[in-house]
Amino acid sequence: MKKTVLVSLALLAVPVMSARPQTLELAAVRFYRTSGAQTLVDAFCQVPFGLLDPVTQGPGGIAAYRFAVTVHDTAGTELLAQSWLQTVPVRMLAVSRG
Fold first, then answer.
1. How far is CA 63 from CA 11, 18, 21, 88, 90, in A?
2. Using an 8 Å Cβ cutoff, are 61 and 97 in contact?
3. What are the pLDDT digits (tens) for 3-58?
4. Are 51 and 13 in contact (CB under 8 A)?
5. Is residue 74 within 8 Å of residue 6, measured between CB atoms?
């Protein structure tokens, strides 16, 4: 029996005004393994630090964001719920990538 799995990914970040537009980049790939009747999902998320506001100020200040993943089957049953909190040194918020 094959189960379809829906994956929802959420990222909470406070946007700030920037000279150039920045967006959250997200890619997800779903695999089905027939041998174990498993559905696997690999998700990749790139968070532009320019979207973050400092949580604490000063030389040791940090910004933070939370990444949350919830997986439901087609009946709406929650199969997985996890979240991660990531901190970033404030000095990294001004680093331009290009």
1. 14, 16, 19, 5, 6
2. no
3. 444 444 444 444 444 454 578 888 989 888 899 888 888 888 888 888 888 999 88
4. yes
5. yes
